[in-house]
Amino acid sequence: xxxxxxxxxxxxxxxxxxxxxGRNEVGAVATFVGLVRADKCSQVGAxxxxxxxxxxxxxxxxxxxxxxxxxxxxxxxxxxxGVRVIHRIGRLQPGERIVFVGVASAHRGAAFAACEFIMxxxxxxxPFWKKEETPIGGQWVDARExxxxxxxxxxxxx
Amino acid sequence: xxxxxxxxxxxxxxxxxxxxxGRNEVGAVATFVGLVRADKCSQVGAxxxxxxxxxxxxxxxxxxxxxxxxxxxxxxxxxxxGVRVIHRIGRLQPGERIVFVGVASAHRGAAFAACEFIMxxxxxxxPFWKKEETPIGGQWVDARExxxxxxxxxxxxx
Amino acid sequence: xxLELRYFAGLREALDCAGxxxxxxxxxxxxxxxxxxxxxxxxxxxxLTTQKNLRSALDRTMLVLHAEAQSxxxxxxxVAFFPPVTGG
Amino acid sequence: xxLELRYFAGLREALDCAGxxxxxxxxxxxxxxxxxxxxxxxxxxxxLTTQKNLRSALDRTMLVLHAEAQSxxxxxxxVAFFPPVTGG
Lengths: 158, 158, 88, 88
Description:
The complex is a heterotetramer, with two copies of chain A and two copies of chain C. Chain A contains four helices and ten strands. Chain A has helices spanning 12-18, 63-77, 108-125, 145-152, and strands at residues 2-6, 28-35, 41-44, 47-50, 53-58, 80-88, 90-92, 97-105, 128-134, 137-140. The radius of gyration of chain A is 17 Å and the shape is globular. By secondary structure, chain C is of the alpha+beta class. Chain C is 23% helix and 26% strand. Chain C has helices at residues 9-15, 31-39, 47-50, and strands spanning 2-7, 19-23, 55-58, 61-63, 78-82. Classes of the chains: A alpha+beta, C alpha+beta. Chains in contact: A-B, A-D, B-C. Chains A and B meet through α1, β2 and α3 of A and α1, β2 and α3 of B. β2 of chain A pairs antiparallel with β2 (28-35) of chain B, so a sheet runs across the interface.
């Protein structure tokens, strides 16, 4: 497992390839890349306006801990050979990458499930906040109920 | 949509990045890479033995058609911005990549679901067959019931 | 009626035949009929009815097993028989 | 009891405060008590009880809302308050 919180961009190809390199039992690698949508708009009064950029704030000291706990939970639920999580912080422009989650496993079912699980938990349990830059100032992004619902799918009775 | 059947390897990073480049509405890219497991063994008599390589046979003329139909079905089910499928044929050694499926969408739910759907259908509906090389000769890989079950999850009453 | 037949993977090896052009009698109207007609050649060809789960495609569209009896042949049709697929 | 407090995102801006060290009276025993105690400062601090869905973390572990009353503070504890997270 490897977790990074950084302002720099990451190399999608190198990260994906590294998940299977030298690991004999890997037959499946599932990855996810989240990006700032280039058509991203922010609610401004009654209308919407295109954003110029967004800034990602986080909770230094807690962020890596929260991501590590999420990955550990995934490793407890599925037989995984490798997991990589990278989340960027700071100012990001439309079209830029925000997050990478990559999971290697012997079989595709575990790789897909764990990758989606990590993203759903990251969205609701990792301390990141997005602020969008609009022509009339900064605007904090509201949490989405659909993200809570996505995370709730993985709940267990324990 | 772009579908390729080829003997050459592919560039995971370039393919993943291409799915979002120049597409304003892409906020999520989910990818899958399938590999020949380096510890892959074949059943030989009562025991198993490591394979030296595998050869992928396909049905020229039908393969691209089948893959295109699978991707079209995915595009009908989810709002997708881009889909890329690459499947290799010919002789592949342990550790080599076999298949790439990448899906771009505005949101992660659609990207994950469509990527997994395409893999499940590809496994059961695209005309590829694997033959493993063992010390005592070639051995065709048997279809797995779990792949039929995975594909059956997506069935619709229509 | 003239048909183009193709065989793949383990079945191709068992038949020692990758494909052939055949002219079938009028009694062979569906893919299911064709399967029986080929099997009636005897020997290795009996695999077409005795081997479990052998699949088929008509004009490059895969058929589910119970669809073969409803899949009507036509002049120049391309029919393929093969084991369950194992790509990906 | 001395505590380290941290505020994030929109709440940090509303309070105009990223963090502070406080010494709370013995009556403040849980995170829920702390939330009430801070809100009682009045003005912008009332957001801690009036703003919908504000979350908290004790010693860098996120708490669910109903867990705050069971989350006991200790000397030197780090407590953070923040809006629902929106990363990814």
